[in-house]
Automatic annotation (TrEMBL):
Residues spanning the signal sequence: none
InterPro entries: Acyl_CoA_acyltransferase, GNAT_dom
SUPFAM superfamilies, per the entry: Acyl-CoA N-acyltransferases (Nat) (SSF55729)
Pfam hit, one: Acetyltransf_1
CDD domains: NAT_SF (cd04301)
Domain of life of the organism encoding this protein: Bacteria
Name of this protein: GNAT family N-acetyltransferase
Stretches assigned to the N-acetyltransferase domain: 28-190
Amino acid sequence: MSITVTTWSLEQTSPSDLRPAAAPDGDVRIVRAEVPSPEFSRFLYASVGGDIRWSDRLSLSYAEWQKLLDRPGVETWVAYDQGTPAGYVELAARGENGDAAEGVVEIVYFGLLPAFRGRRIGGHLLSHGVARAWDLAERWPGLAPTERVWLHTCSKDGEHAMDNYRRRGFRLFDTKVEQEADVPTPGPWPGSGRD
């Protein structure tokens, strides 16, 4: 069986495009995971995307995860609510085909664990992640200054994803509609998916 999936690509072309969200109430902090950790990154990926069919990275080996995380210009920023990981944003200096592209930063993954959705953390985390995409070259000597930040979202993502991106100042530049295999939600670990 297959499902119809719409994928939207969005972009910002100036730091002034960013419209930050207000910080949520409570003890929410956003910290860069400065030590590349396949275990932690896989935990974030599976926990955030497990109920919305993120599956492309689940079969990667430890070495493949390490290779992804070790590339220049790749950063993981994690939101913590009272010390508990609530979500993350992964940045990568690369273009739309996954190749190196001068001055282009992709928001590769962004989202919250299910228990933290609907609490105004997502807009705050996205705002922080976009700001870090714009100043990425300041932390990575040798990278060109950011001239464009882009991402894609799809009809499988959370119901508020597109609205959040647009409220933060992203503009649509491409739409694709494709058929994909209808895979069960994998959950944060094998067999724990909620259908």
